Amino acid sequence: PYPDDPRVPVETVEHRVLYLKIKTDAGLEGLYGLVDHEAARVVEHQLREFLIGQDPLAIAKVWDKMYRINRHSRAGHYMMGISAIDNALWDLAGKHFGVPVYRLLGGPTRESVEAYASCLGSSVQPEAVARRSVELKEEGFRYQKWFFPHGPSHGTKGLLANVELVRNLRQALGDEYEIMFDAFNGWDLGYAKDWARMAEKYRPRWIEEAFSSEKLQSFVELRRSTSIPVATGEHFYGRWEVNRFLRADALDVVQADPEWCGGVSELVKICTLASANDVHVVPHGHNIHAALHVVAAQSPMTCPLAEYLLRFKPHKCHFEKDPLVPVNGHIALPTRPGFGIELDESKIDRMERIHL
């Protein structure tokens, strides 16, 4: 909800999540989660039987086969299933070699990864924004992303309210602070240009997903019309979509998500494409493990940041020991093999294999 509502009741609910575990005949296991139910159905019904008998350390070969055996593999839930398996195999490989995944990807480029505070679900009422944004700054975050509550259907009043959110944050945080904004696929080109023209003086770090990702030309025209960097890509499925945007000079920041775009294997390829085009990759933060390890192994020139969803990460990692949490705006690199995911049995009432 965009406004604060003190009348919302507090209640206790059952919390269920899915993790993917891949076992080998040598006794080694790969673990990854959270996994979306849509991805889990693909794993269960389309990829499980194929995986049996494959070499779990031949990750590139397994990825290529999974991609080629389905005519609809280019996008959507099937690519999400590939992503889940790929990430679990990277965890398995890290455990086999006794090192964190980022070591397998070339080693760390920094001791910790800086995270930006992603404020999805936070109130955008002016007083709440000013108060919460300053709190986050004091916690050590140097970057914040906020979400617009209005779109074209709200008319000029809504447009001005979206500009006012930018002004409010700039005033509360100061000229040196980095602020980003997400429209969540909700705008059209004319609306985006109007907003950018009025908001440009407040120097946003980027405008994210002004349009849905099939509207390539709208991204091209918006980028040509404003000095505000243009970001998108959480719904990119693979390097081919990214390359199409890069060749069109359509964006400044690629936000591919390793839970959806093809896993660690594909995100690394996307980083290579981006680095060749002098474009940043800041992975979408649906989860944190795979994104963190890829960012940690890339040059900060290519991957300067990770996303941390303040209101969603804690419950996503509820069942994990030592969840990855920013301290002073930075997430320390894990040192355990693989992704270092370890479940906390004291928080688990029951664990069962799900047949979807």
Give the structural class.
Answer: alpha/beta
Q: What best-fitting shape do the alpha-carbon axes yield? A: globular
Radius of gyration: 21 Å
Number of helices: 12
What is the strand tally? 11
- SS strand fraction: 5-15%
Outline of the structure:
The chain is α/β, with parallel strands linked by helices and 356 residues long.
Commentary on this structure:
Strands 3, 4, 5, 6, 7, 8, 9, 10 and 11 form a nine-stranded mixed beta sheet that branches. It is built from twelve helices and eleven strands. Helix content is 39%, strand content 12%. Strand 5, helix 7 (189-199) and strand 6 form a beta-alpha-beta unit. The chain is globular. It has helices at 37-51, 59-68, 76-97, 101-104, 126-138, 155-173, 189-199, 216-225, 239-247, 263-276, 289-297, 313-316, and strands at 19-23, 29-33, 112-118, 143-147, 178-182, 206-208, 230-232, 253-254, 280-281, 306-309, 330-332. It is an alpha/beta fold and 356 residues long. Helix 1 packs across helix 3 (76-97), helix 3 (76-97) crosses helix 10 (263-276) and helix 10 (263-276) packs parallel to helix 11 (289-297).
